[in-house]
Amino acid sequence: MLSLNQVSKHYDNKKMRRGKPVKAVHEVSFELQPNEIFALIGESGSGKSTLAEMIVGLQKPTSGSIIRSEPSASIQMVFQNPDRSMNPYWRIKDIIAEPLILSKRKKQAALEQVSQLAEKVKLPLDILDRYPTECSGGQKQRIAIARALTMSPKLLVADEITSALDPSIEAEIMQLLLSLKDAEGMSILYITHRIETISRFADRVAVMRNGEIEALGGTNEVLFHSSSAYTKALMYACSYEDNSRDTSSSE
Ligand SMILES: Nc1ncnc2c1ncn2[C@@H]1O[C@H](COP(=O)(O)OP(=O)(O)OP(=O)(O)O)[C@@H](O)[C@H]1O
């Protein structure tokens, strides 16, 4: 459904004094299959967001090509910080309805669809009359997902959407994404720096490092049998963190 061929994004940074060119993304190639969860993992600064923005069309590659077999509205993105895309003076129902109204849907029909979408993402209906400041972080991500679903996407790009949430809320949102993948028949590009969260979630995974793909394949194969020393180090770091959490919690 989406094919990346040698995609690069280089910033020359000439305007900055002593600015060095940055290869934010360098010669990345992979294909996204219909109805799969594809996790993109890597440390901060490895190029994940830049790649995601090119996939949804927010940025143009410096070189390489991205071939989309779906129309652009079929690719929707949800961001880490939902507040940035929500007008604080609008009620939640109007925030979710906005793409429908912009695509000339009648207000009444749009609001009916909003209620259905709220049920789909398991939001209590009374939230629809509230304002963003009256919602929790997890609820705001459900709202952002509901708004993305108005366009019946074939690909949902989720950029660190659970990174600011408590682990239990993160697990609930990931469970929601799993059920939506099947119910909506869509693919999900799930971007995270938290490698430890994806083992029972993603079908495939790509590990990014310094703008390049370091490892790519089935999730278990990459996480537990990769020959990439970097991937092994990421896995070791998170199991070490988990062990230290276990130790401290048992004290
Ligand atoms: N507009 C820009 N101009 C110059 N350099 C940029 C620009 N945007 C990103 N970069 C650089 O490109 C590299 C990749 O950034 P990117 O935000 O894609 O990484 P990331 O893996 O998403 O990191 P994070 O998880 O912290 O968001 C970084 O070195 C970053 O500083």
TrEMBL record:
Q: Which PANTHER family match?
A: D,D-DIPEPTIDE TRANSPORT ATP-BINDING PROTEIN DDPF-RELATED, TRANSPORT ATP-BINDING PROTEIN
Task: Specify whether Repeat is a keyword of the entry.
Answer: no
Matching InterPro entries, A to Z?
Answer: AAA+_ATPase, ABC_transp_ATP-bind, ABC_transporter-like_ATP-bd, ABC_transporter-like_CS, P-loop_NTPase
What's in the keyword line of the UniProt record?
Answer: ATP-binding, Nucleotide-binding, Transport
Q: Which family does it belong to?
A: Belongs to the ABC transporter superfamily.
* Entry keyword annotation includes Transport: yes
GO terms, molecular function: ATP binding
- Record-linked Pfam families: ABC_tran (PF00005)
Q: Boundaries of each ABC transporter domain copy?
A: 2-235
This protein's source sits in the domain of life called Bacteria
Q: What is this protein called?
A: ABC transporter ATP-binding protein
